[in-house]
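Risk register update: the risk of archive-format incompatibility is retired. Evidence:
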Amino acid sequence: MSKLALFFPGQGSQSIGMMAGFGGNAIIKNTFIEASDILGVDFWAMVTEPNELLNLTQHTQPLMLTAGVATARAYVGADGAQPQVLAGHSLGEYSALVAASALTFADALPLVKYRAEVMQNAVPEGVGAMAAILGLDDDAVRVVCAEAAQGEVLEAVNYNSLGQVVIAGNKAAVERGMELAKAKGAKRAVALAVSVPSHCALMKPAAAQLAEYLKNVKINTPQISVIHNADVVSYDDADRIKDALVRQLHSPVRWVETVQAIYAQGITHVAECGPGKVLASLTKRIVAELPCVALTSSEALLELKSM
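Archived output:
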């Protein structure tokens, strides 16, 4: 018997034309209109017309939430099978919580916009950085961070797949870490084009602000299990879910463990709900036996239904 999980990508998968594969799908378009009405920003224009707003964090985070929710709704609208478990990479965790009916879309949109703003404000432009380290194991990357920090913040923050770990912290420390990683045998060390050093200790001030905001956000019992980035477990209790979201800001995204845990639950196939194919690619690298369809078009929705 087949068992399905839905994955939701985070910031970085956005692009102009990213929803074009769905053509005139009314569910997709209406979800974008709903988001635009709630936040007063034309998100549909943002993904269909050339503009400079797409990659601004305060727009990107609600935009990616909208894309993930819209895709999940389109899948349900196509009479797709009920998923057994949900997970999202970083920001994608919020899309997963909306899909699980733990968060309303109307509450999630201003929440992630606020999250983006406090993250951006926590670290002045140019102070923080992130880089992907390719070809070193997790322990080796952690050693690199310890040795290259030199009193600054430098941490392994995204365990994306075996041999692909993202580091984050103070810019100079990240640069030292990139050089040291290459000296220790990394195949590549690639600086990421981001304005915020996510998931490291530099985000603790933002996490404290997010915790205050969350006090006034209603969290319902998830109707589908959501595996959280920080702990690789799911919670039913609202306070524990809020705590997991707060800690996520300054804790590593344990994606390898998340995919492995889902596979261990007997999940037979996965669908990535959102633009791009980042999580589908990572899933293949983490558990080669676990097929993952990237739902980037109407045709992909039909492909998943037939699995």
